[in-house]
Design a protein that fits this description.
The complex is a heterodimer of chains A (about 300) and B (about 220). Chain A has helices at about 1-10, 25-30, 35, 60-65, 105-120, 130-140, 145-155, 160-170, 175-185, 190-200, 210-220, 265-270, 285-290, and strands spanning about 15, 25, 45, 50-55, 70-85, 85-100, 125-130, 190, 230, 245-250, 260-265, 280-285. With about 300 residues, chain A is an alpha+beta fold. The termini of chain A are close together. With about 220 residues, chain B is an alpha/beta fold. Chain B has helices at about 10-20, 55-60, 70-75, 115-125, 140-145, 160-165, 185-190, 190-205; strands at about 1-5, 35-40, 45-50, 65-70, 80-85, 90-100, 110-115, 130-135, 150-155, 165-175, 180-185. Classes of the chains: A alpha+beta (about 300), B alpha/beta (about 220). The interface of A and B includes residues 126, 160, 251, 255 and 258 of A.
Chain lengths: ~300, ~220
Amino acid sequence: MLKHDLNALYEEQGIRRFRPPAFEPYDLYVTNRDYLGASQLITFTDLDGTLMAMLPDVTLSVLRASGGRQQMRVYYNASVYRPKDGHFREIPQAGIEYVGALDAEAEAEVLRLAYRSLSLLSEEAIIRVSDVSFLHTLLRDMNLADETASLVLKLFAVKNASGIDRLLADGRIEKEKAALLKALADLYLPFEEGVAFLEKQSLLASCSETIAHLKTLAGALSAQDAGKRFFLDFSLVNSMDYYSGVLFQGSVRDIPFPILSGGRYDALASRMGREDGAIGFCVYLDLIENNRREASV
Amino acid sequence: MISVALPKGRLGEKTYAMMAAAGYECPSILEKNRKLTFENKEKGIRYFWVKPSDVSIYVERGTADIGVCGRDILMEYAPDVYELLDLEIGACDMCVAGPADFTDNGEGTLKVATKFPHIAMRYYERAGRRADIIKLNGSVEIAPVLKLSDVIVDIVETGSTLKANNLAVLTKFAHITARLISNKVSYQFRHEEITGVRDALLRVVSGETPVQDVTLEH
């Protein structure tokens, strides 16, 4: 069963299991409302009067438990409770979280594990990678009006490269910038090739630090065969608010929705008192169960 | 084999004509028959007809790898799909329409009848205008005539339907055309095939490749 195979995969890497509680103080989620989205929570009052909530998410519990520890590498395989199709449901999720000082090698390790998680399901798996700091730097240095920058991100999200032409025609972007933005909206390249493309763009000189980091990451990934299954793709713009570096999504050929998502969420970790870093991903076991023909999760 | 969801009706016929010109012809689709799907194995393409407002659902769920639907559907339902190309057909405008002499004094709540409640809600929210959005399923023009609403938010092509009901366009706020959409996962695993279709269609849109009109036998 996939659930057990995932556990074995992570244990093999020396990652220990984190068993989240079934509920946490509601306070934890109120202060992180923007991370959770507008989701409703199942709440109840504890015997001492504290308002509690059934876990909508595991990451926050991991961060809460990481206090006082230098490094924490954990995996989980647990249920969360969120609204789905008009009702609260128990939703199975599996994933890993690395909290602590993180270099490109640690990021590569997490990405590789994301790929290996999916390859337990299918030989045909792809992980798409983007970088939030790259996009923020790019848009800031292009000096676009706020509304234009926001439109550009919306176009990136749907890979609408010709929409950039319309912004050019409307006089909202200059010609060379439009050409680059078009190329980035349309970009879908094997990770190493994608980074090589970025390196060649003179208009991206101010992003050289982020690009150098992506290059190191690409090198660390391609050291193993899985390197071929990673693609650079800037259409991953949703959830840009709490991810702060590398951002990724995973899919397998026979399931029409992404079934894995993750990234570096230093901004969220810092809000919970950690100044070093955090990266992780989540596998949506319910989506897999509902969309596979011989589903045995 | 790429699966394409085509919208039933004139827009779908125009789309098929463009696909055929782009090199993805499937002659059996033109025959009078009761088949639901049409394949051209050699070109690696399969077509099927669906209700226009359902195209995005088939594509979002991966039953169709790609499809063609109006920007109005994309704006209203925001399906989680890629929007790869503007086909520049099916052109119309999303408008506020009402009695020709209607003026909004800005007071109270404006009654707005529409088939596009999300589009209408967002429009009035941005305008800072309190609006009572009345969702209808069709023949929206009759609403202000019968005083169900003050105005309507609807797509307008020639404006002849409005004229016939003594209504006029009060504001045009979005231009609508048909778009080529793609399932996000299909895009990843069939990147070359799907961008191949998009690029060939782009040459048709730009006029580089000429199109021949087709009429389907019904």
